[in-house]
Give the backbone structure.
Amino acid sequence: MMLSSIRKKAAVLLLVLFMFVACAGVALASSEHASHAEAKGWAKTDTFRVVNFAVLACALFFLLRKPVANGLNSRIATIRQELETLEARKEEARKELEAYKERLAALDKEAEEIIADYRRQGEAAKARIIESAKAAAAKIEEQAKRNIENEFESAKQKLRVEIFEKALARAEDLVREKITLDDQGRLVDEYLEKVVL
């Protein structure tokens, strides 16, 4: 269909060109004749020229009316289609721009959320570290108290043993000083009676 349309247009163009050349030849021939003759106003050849031009114009109009209209209509349709395509691409580009804006906003929001999450994690880690340090300090304090109490009890025990040993030594010294041989014999007899019974 496209090839036949191109052939028709070429045929019409050749016909128009032929008619133009023919009219130009007639016009040149009559102008040479007119140059030899005197100008009298409206001549018989002028009428032929006007009629020739009118016939040529009408022939061109009737011959080129459909091809020119079809060509213009196809050009209008092509322009409309291109405009629709461009509008669709414009709308698609606008949607992509909106999508990129949303992604950018989402990235900003996500970055803020990540920062907030890291801050929360940092605060939680700080709280855990403080709590762990407090627990460790309490354990150390409790251990220190137990160690002090143990040392205090150990010192008390040593002091008691030392006091007991000194008291025993003192009592032994007193018994040696105060006990006589008769007392000693009597104590041995009492002990033997207790053991035997």
Summary: The mean pLDDT is 81. The chain has three helices and no strands. The two ends are 151 Å apart (CA to CA).
